[in-house]
Protein: ABC transporter, solute-binding protein
Amino acid sequence: MRRLIPVISFLILASTAFWGILQYAKIQEDLKKQTSVKAQTIKICTDLQSNILDEIGKEFYAETGFQIEIIRMTAEQLGSNGHQGIGEADIFLTSQTNLEELKKNKALRSYSSESTDTALEQFKDFEGTWTGIWLDPIVFVVNKEFAARHSLLNYNWNNIMTSPQIRLSMTDFIAADMAEDLLLSMAEHFGITEALYLLSEGNSHIVQYGKYLSTPSRMAGMGKCDIGISSYNEAMRAQKENLPLQIMYPTDGTSWYLYGIGLSADSKEPELGQKLMNWLLTPTHYKKVMQDNGCYFIYVNDSTLPADTNGNPLNYWELEKKYVDEGKKILLNEWIEQVRFRRIS
Structure:
């Protein structure tokens, strides 16, 4: 029996060592798997030039372990299939106009989920090829002194555009895509004749057409105009600079510029893009990051926007935004000739 004790002890030690080796191997395999998951990268193709996606990417990585690789292109490249030379993207993030072009070029694949389903119909493609995530509506940015003197003013489009005593500022329609989008939206909502009439009436008391989207809200805050016709994002930025202004929502509704996302038809791992898409459609994940970096969009899947100073909610025009290039050109030329540089005989 005594002779067996060393043998038994050896077997116990050997078994313990073998079990330890197996456990170590299992731990290493688990770590390898985790590292592999964390190393996975989602390629997002966009024409947004700000660094906000870099900051969002950090938050996404911290929550999910997936990295984001940002491929930046121009709007023209996106619209002309220029993205095909960059390799395989998993997801596109760009304006509604560019997403429609990508759809036309069969660069997107359909996708729906609980997150996409809660987006309102007018803010997504009916075939599911893209879904809106961020809205930037047009608002009236009012100088505080003017607002105090005209406390009973109804801030609707007709009153603002046809009252010659109100000094206005707006971004020139030829200066930026978002500014041009307002012209197109007004033509769709009011009709071309009525839209050009309102713009012509407003032209007589516009103190300055801005070259930048930020100009109208800043001019209102500095008292250089009474009301700036501005995007909500730029209005909020000016307000955060403590400029004396108030943001008023047009009481008869307003235009909006939309940024959205769509899954790439060329992605070999579409589930990666789906993961990011659903995450972006849940703004509680990253809303604070956006605001901390000076981005104040309204989120398609967020209902927390408060009423304006007068207690009016933000209402959006029902728009399809199916604008063709030739029609855009004709309308822009009509505005230039009949409004912007109209000759008074």
The mean pLDDT is 89. The domain at 135-255+306-339 is CATH 3.40.190.10 (D-Maltodextrin-Binding Protein; domain 2). Residues 43 and 262 are 12 Å apart (CA to CA). The first strand starts at residue 41 and ends at 46.
